[in-house]
Structures are given as C-alpha cells and as structure tokens.
Amino acid sequence: MNDLVLKAGVARIEITPPVGFRMQGAMRRIEPSVGIESPLLATALVLGDENSKVVIFDCDLIGFDLPLAREIRQTVGKRVGTPPSHVIVGCTHTHNGPCTSRGNLGGVHDVAGKPEEIAALDAYISNLVGQLAGLASVADSRRQPARVGGGRGEAAVAVNREELDTDGRIRVGRNPAGITDHSVEVFRIDDLNGRPIAVITNYAAHPVVMGYHTYLLSADYPGVVRRLVESATGATCLFLTGAAGNQAALSFLQSDWGEQERMGGQIAGAAVRAFFEIETRPHEVIRECDASLSNIALYHKEFRQGPTHQAFKVASRAVSVPLQPLPSLAQAETNAAEANATLKKLNQDKAPTIKTAPASLVKRWAEGVLQKVKAGMKQETLSFEIVGVRIDNCLLVAMPGEPFVEIGLGVKRRASALHTIFGGYCNGVLAYWPSAETVAKGGMAVEASVKTYNISAPPVSETVDIIVDNFSQLLSELEV
C-alpha cells in the first residue's frame, strides 16, 4: 500500500497592471486601457507527496514569451524546491490584459511602443516574476493532506471558428459543422474530511468574448467561471484554457459585457454540477432495510480510512515541429519590398494606427524572413516542452502555444485516464498549432498569425500528428 501523503495548498494575488497599460491581442487596438472591468488574478496550486511536487498557475494574461516562461519556471522551482519541468505556468489567454509576450503578438516591444511605455511594462514583468515565485511559496506553505477526484460536464459554448466563406477563404467566424470539444473537465481537491481546498476546471474556447472596441482590463469569460464556481463551491478555482486555437465562444469579439457573463455562466454551471458529483473520500455505499408504514431500503455512505493516493507521477518531453520551407531569395526580397512600400504609403497618407500597426508587423516579419534566407536557412523548427501530471485516474497535460482542438481531442482519446484536462497556453506562447485542413486551406492561423508570432512560415501539415504522437510517449511515461 502507498504510505506517501499527498498534500495540496493554494494561494492567489492580484496582478492587474495600472490603467493606461496597452492590452495585447488585437492589432486594431493599440491605444492604452482606460479602466478595469474585472481584476486580473494569478492563482497557484501546489500538489505533492514526499517524492514529487508540482506547481500549477492560472494567470489572467495572454501568455508569456518562451524566455520569460522559462525564467518564471526556474525561479519558482528554485523557490519551492522542485525542478522547473514540474512548474506549469498556465495563462487564460485573455486579450484584455497587458503585453506579457515580448517579441510577438504585436505588443509594445513590437509596434508603436514609446520608451516610457516599454520601461513601465518591463518593470511590471520583472516584478511579476518575483510575485509568482512568492505566490508559489505561500501556496507551498499552506499544503495539507488532500485527495483529488475528477468529474466532467458539458457546455455548448464553443464553436469552431474556421469559417469557409463563399469566396473560398477561411475567415475567423462560425463553423457549426466543424470539430469542437464541449467538455468541462473538473478536478476537485479536498482535505481528508472532504472539505474543498481547490478546483481546477477547463474549457476549449478562445477567451475573447470581448473585442476590438473594449478598452477595459478584464479576465474575460474565465474570470466569470472562477467567480461563479467559487461562490457555489467555496473552493479556490483555477481555470486552464484548453486546445482553443480554432475554437471561439458563440459570443466572440463583442462590446456587450453581458455576453461575457452568459458565456462564462454556462461553463461555470457545468463545472459546479460536476464538482458536487465528485466524492473524494474512500467509502462504500451501504444498503439497510427498515420499516415504518412502508418497507424502506436505506442507502448511506460508510467512510473508511485509506491512502491519499495510489499514483502521483510527473513527466515532461521535448517536442520539435518543423515549419514549412522558407521562400526563395527572390520571393523573400519581393515580400520585403512590398511590405516596405505598403507601410511607406500608409504613413504618407497619415493612415490611422488600425492600418499602420498591422503593416509594421508585416514589414518586420518580411525583413526577418529575408535575413534568414540570406543567411542560408532553408527551414525553421520550433521546439518546446510538453508536461504531464497524473494523480490516480486524473491526468493533466499541458503545452505552449495555441493548439487546435484536434490535438486536445487526440490526446484525450489516447489517454486511459478516466479524467483528462488538456491545457494549452501553458509555459509560453509561440505559434498556432493547426490542423492539416487549415494548413491546406489557409486562414488567420497560418497567414496573419505567422506575422504576429514572427515565425518564418506556418507549421507543416503533419503538426497535429507530431504533437499527439509525442504526447503518446509522455502518456507511456505516466503509465496512463
């Protein structure tokens, strides 16, 4: 029998930047924020026994560039005494938060950033690293014996957003016939008496209910989910955005804040129901017969002592995904010349930033590709780490970037765990990871995003298979 004791602790801080910080994720909107709709939060959950310890973060941010994510994981791991590979830094991917991914996504480091704006953001990020390390330390100090149980609900909020228009182009819209994942996965973490400590829930839809014309800092629908789940359950709630690369909420890029409540409310309702269906305490259901005026069969739970867990395993794996071949030198020179000419014309015409900011990103991208081609590069590869944590029949797997839902579903099909949470946007953002169909047909995820993420070319058509196959190897290490 396993005589190790699983322990869990949770802590939270607010990480809302000052009003006036620019928000990241919409190139049409580079003006400063003007207020706060909801506070941005960071929550840390520490789980571990005498052999291993993991730290799981939920941050109301669009994501971290890979060097920053690496710095956070190293700093946190050193603070709480666990390897950096055992630290999962999840971001909800709200587009109504500060620019925490430097060098991509059109942040202040990339386009139209004033020196004082860049300095303020750098100070915020530097402080944030220390804040997250301190938060993990507090959560670690609060650890107490715990058990984990899993459950699942459904919410028909997500819709595939790869819409095929009448002109044959892929637009970001609604594709009701496209693949989705409506599951609301729930892990309940209780003390040994069944009192809630924390809950992790998860959904695969872009947290971009609010859109281009909103200038309030906001956690978007994940903040609504957390607020409602915590109100109903008394557990501190962590939200991990799933494989949402090609998934939108039915209400997408809205200006009515009520839509945020409607989307988050439906997901929260499913999570709450699943939460209360979970019993973490070891027990048997006992049937007893009695009689009043009627014969009655009575059923009750008889609780027993038992170990906190049978299996606790953590594993990580390096993954490399090739991008498509770079263009010829002649084509790269043409692309750069056209990008420069376009931006020059817009500036001459005194076009608004809604036009010049995207054009600036295209210019940067085209010139960068040209430099790589001139240096002799033929094809680029993106490398990153995937992580998995198994506690009995509950499995949490996570990866950086914006995975299409086909990846999340593919991993769930290959996992033998009863309950699986798939987290995207964890430990960094660096690219979309699209399906073969999108690679073939085009669209934002393989066209515009190449410029915003500043990568030389879209990923290859085999991307989903490459990533899912690597997760299969990870599952083998976790024995699940």
Characterize this entry briefly.
With 480 residues, the chain is of the alpha/beta class. The chain is 32% helix and 28% strand. The strands form six sheets. The chain has an eight-stranded mixed beta sheet with strand order 5-4-3-1-6-9-10-12. The chain has a four-stranded mixed beta sheet with strand order 16-17-18-20, covered by helices on one side.
Topology of this structure?
Elements: E1 7-14, E2 35-36, E3 41-48, E4 53-59, H1 66-80, E5 87-91, H2 115-141, E6 144-154, E7 158-164, E8 170-175, E9 183-191, E10 196-203, E11 216-217, H3 220-233, E12 236-241, E13 247-249, H4 257-277, E14 283-291, E15 295-303, E16 312-322, H5 329-348, H6 353-374, E17 381-391, E18 394-398, E19 402-403, H7 405-414, E20 419-423, E21 432-433, H8 436-441, H9 448-452, H10 463-478
Parallel strand pairs: 2-11, 4-5, 10-12, 18-20, 19-21
Antiparallel strand pairs: 1-3, 1-6, 3-4, 6-9, 7-8, 7-13, 9-10, 14-15, 16-17, 17-18
Helix pairs in contact: 1-2, 3-4, 5-6, 7-10
